[in-house]
Design a protein that fits this description.
- The chain is of the alpha/beta class and 430 residues long.
- It folds into two domains: 235 residues, Glycogen Phosphorylase B (Rossmann fold); 180 residues, Glycogen Phosphorylase B (Rossmann fold).
- It contains 16 helices and 13 strands.
- The strands form two sheets. It has a seven-stranded parallel β-sheet, sandwiched between helices. It has a six-stranded parallel β-sheet with strand order 10-9-8-11-12-13, with helices on both faces.
- β6, α7 and β7 form a beta-alpha-beta unit.
- The radius of gyration is 22 Å and the shape is globular.
- The mean pLDDT is 92.
Length: 430
């Protein structure tokens, strides 16, 4: 039983994020390998296009008054309401199903934490539960909202203190969704799945009653879109549209437009580049505003970009398929400036496309980036600027670094991750 709130949408048209991409590729692989029968609970109206008879898809209805029912455009409060509606829908479905069959032989795989069923109730019904942490939301809140002043383990302990005093109910709904929901997940799920070792360490420090055997580290590997045959044509279009002559270094970054992705840090680093070096660069910040704060953050990025003159910044929007592959082709260097990141699917995709990378020191950075094809720096504009200088000063070596990056990424097979997770799920219900 897979509960994945971001499924049911066309990923070529809607920037649904990395968690949904992982869920889609898990399903695609499990349809072929058939380790177990699958029922999928999503929130969108469209079942996965590759679904076969052994996958049953059900859409959990939801509605946020006063908002467009476009998942990626909800406000903070609207998204919290959506999460609670999805939680109730999943839980009620599982309650009804428990009346028909023995739930002890069923595992519920929650594809994220806030967008999941009621962990405590589902456990009480007799189901086994596995939760995928695409984001440790407590660690995210500590890093992004509290700017690291209160680390995740301390924040989790502080919440438990509030709860013991009966004060948790007075917290804002969004805070409860983050703190209370993840606490319940850590208490009632049989297995916690994370994509990096650092994430596992933070979780175990935040919820000390869990043991290393309760947490499985499953790096997702490379999820690479099968681009259509139009990549060469799209590459020519991009070069003509933006006047790329091959003489000016081209930087690429690709993710949704959102504060945690750190595009503003990159723009501030580029401002330092322009002030101190004055050398021309072409920069593509690919992606669309999505989820909480996306639109207001996009306006901020545009203001920062307008201050640049010798550094040429373009916002091509959401790209996929052949156009996405073409942007990887025209780039010399991939920049990944995230403030908080659990894994970095687009970073691995860039490696697979043969691009060297400059990344901030996020949770998986040290697992994914080696000195022979990239550089890991602190999460500041100053350090990103220095990293750009170090890598672009050896521009003639970037192509060789890209070849090393591609060779490394070829060893990161998503199928291995999918098989390992399937085996762990099957072991719970044996």
């Amino acid at each position: 039983m897979l509960a994945a709130a971001h499924l049911g949408y066309d990923p070529k048209a809607v920037p649904i994020g990395g968690g949904a991409q992982v869920a889609l590729h898990l399903l695609r692989h499990w349809v072929k390998s058939a380790p177990f029968s699958l029922t999928v609970l999503g929130s969108g109206p469209v079942p996965p296009s590759f679904a076969e008879k052994n996958i049953r898809y059900l859409s959990i209805p939801w509605h946020v008054p006063g908002h467009s029912n476009t998942l990626t455009e909800l406000s903070v409060s609207g998204y919290a309401l959506f999460c609670r509606q999805f939680e109730r829908g999943v839980t009620e479905f599982l309650r009804r199903r428990a009346r028909e069959v023995d739930p002890g032989g069923t595992c519920v795989l929650h594809n994220d934490i806030c967008e999941a069923g009621d962990f405590r109730t589902v456990a009480g019904l007799g189901y086994r539960q596995v939760a995928i942490f695409h984001v440790d939301v407590v660690d995210y809140a500590a890093s992004v909202y509290l700017r690291g002043r209160l680390p995740a383990p301390r924040l989790a302990r502080t919440f438990r203190g509030f709860a013991r005093l009966g004060l948790a109910r007075f917290l804002p709904e969004v805070a409860r969704l983050i703190l209370e929901k993840q606490e319940a997940c850590a208490r009632h799920c049989d297995l916690l799945v994370v994509p990096s070792r650092q994430m596992a360490e933070v979780l175990l420090a935040s919820y000390p009653w869990r043991t290393p055997e309760d947490v499985i580290v499953v790096p997702w590997g490379a999820i690479v879109e099968q681009a259509s045959s139009g990549v060469e044509e799209e590459t020519k279009k991009i070069k003509a549209e933006y006047g790329l002559d091959g003489n000016t270094p081209v930087l690429i970054t690709l993710s949704r437009i959102s504060p945690e992705k750190g595009q503003d840090l990159l723009l501030r680093a580029l401002a330092l580049w322009e002030k101190r070096r004055g050398e021309r660069l072409v920069v593509f910040i690919c992606g669309a505003p999505a989820f909480i704060h996306g639109k207001s953050y996009m306006r901020r990025l545009l203001r920062l970009a307008r201050r640049l003159h010798k550094v040429e910044v373009h916002f091509p929007g959401y790209v996929s398929g052949a156009r996405k592959a073409a942007f990887f082709r025209v780039g010399d260097l991939y920049v990944f400036p995230s403030r908080h990141e659990s894994y970095g699917l687009t970073l691995v995709e860039a490696l697979a496309a043969g691009l060297p990378v400059l990344t901030t020191d996020h949770r998986s950075a040290r697992d994914l980036v080696r000195p022979e094809f990239g550089l890991v720096v602190k999460t500041t504009a100053e350090d990103l600027y220095r990293g750009l200088g170090e890598l672009l000063e050896q521009r003639e070596d970037l192509r060789l670094m890209g070849k090393r990056a591609r060779a490394f990424a070829l060893g990161l097979e998503f199928q291995q991750a999918a098989d390992r997770l399937a085996g762990a799920i099957a072991a719970l219900t044996e």
